[in-house]
Amino acid sequence: MKQIHSGLTFLNMAGKYSNQTVRLVAHMIDAIDSDILQEAVQAAQQRFPYLCVRLCMVVDSHGAEHYAYEDNPLPWILTRGQRQVQLLDNASNNHLIAFAYWDDCIALDFFYSIADGTGAYRVLRTLLYEYCRRRYDAGLSREGIMVKGDNIDESEYCDPAALPKPAISIPKPVSAMPQALNLYAEAVAPMRENGKEVVHIRVDEEKLMQPIRQCGASPASWFSLMLARSVKRLHPDGAAPTVSLAVNLRKGTGTPLTHQPMVGVVMLPLRQEMLDWDMKKQVAEFRRMIAEQASPERLLSYYWAIQDGMKQLEQVPSAETRHELVTQMHQQNRQKASFSVSYVGRAALGDAGRYVREIQTEANTPLALLVEISAAGGAFCISFIQQFAADVYLDSFLDELCRQGIDYDIVSRHPISVAPIADFRNNSDRISL
């Protein structure tokens, strides 16, 4: 049995506003061979034994409830069809990870308490390598890919929050943040009443990188700015469109290999005085804010502030009460940002990448708008996830791409599809100490 630390934030958050699950979908060049894929899933599971766990509830001598992981020897589940199995119950063999396939697609569903995007992509790389070497090329290079038979170092599964807390210097104050535009309160489009929709947009990677390089941007800063500019055109007299950009906290904790959820955010407001600046100057300001807020010492301070808060919250004996408190906090925090952007970097699939056309991402968020970006198969896939019932914000974003000379294709759109989770607060196995 292993106590949970870094994943507590997402266990406490998971509920009706967001179930904290994510789906990664790799679109391959051919229809999926299910027998080969089953072998690949088994091989991937053998490579990541520390992800083979089930969630349980430990009740201490005072009656307080605490989450923990137990080893789970049952196989990872692979199902046919787009519909996900429910994680954390019998349908998924009580795992926090599951797989599916249909047509030319391979999907990985995962619960955020066990891994973030960085950790999940490692599993996906291994899975695609194992599949492609069996399907296409037995001599496929494994360079840069984790495979079964590797010596598994403790650094892959260590939880930084279980280590002694390091000395933390007080970081310099960041620039003052203006009031953020609240799209839930001020949106110019009606809200959907039955969940969110995702629109998958495909852009040629090399063609898109040209304007990104020309203005000195990174993909993360460029997409953040494009979205902020597109929203500002719809709210010319409103508060500052503020991007909540996901950042990797591993850079601060010095634990680059851990699978634990290590995601934080930096806030990037498009301030009023920036509107008259040219693109290069706007990009430079966004990159300055990212550097200011994502320095290693600030990321370390950020990470331990979260862990200290979760440790204090653990003093509340009821898991359900902790969830209610965290939900209230995040409802308040969503007023600090207008929308979210997440880009984990290039997929780095190695030689298996030649058999992948693109990777799509679907996730839920308490905010009304989330843009998930992946880069694979020579393309950026922009997953535009919206609460809006009309395409006002989507059209403005696409228009911004056109203004930058970017051609795009809308590949698909549908209601968001992420795995459900079991009612683990009430139904997890209980262990009394």
Order of strands across the main sheet: 10-9-11-13-14-8-15
In terms of structural class, how would the helical and strand content be classed? alpha+beta
* Share of residues in helices: 25-40%
Strand content: 15-25%
Instruction: Tell me the series of helices and strands, N- to C-terminal.
Output: EHEHEEEEEHHEHHEHEHHHEEEEHEHE
> What is the CA-atom radius of gyration, in angstroms?
21 Å
Weakly predicted, low-confidence segments: none
Distance between the termini: 12 Å
Number of helices: 12
CATH topology of the largest domain: Chloramphenicol Acetyltransferase
Mean pLDDT figure: 94
> Into how many domains do the coordinates divide?
2
The CATH H-level superfamily of the largest domain is Nonribosomal peptide synthetase, condensation domain
Largest sheet: 7 strands, mixed
CATH architecture of the largest domain: 2-Layer Sandwich
Shape designation: globular
Number of distinct beta strands = 16
CATH class wording of the largest domain: Alpha Beta
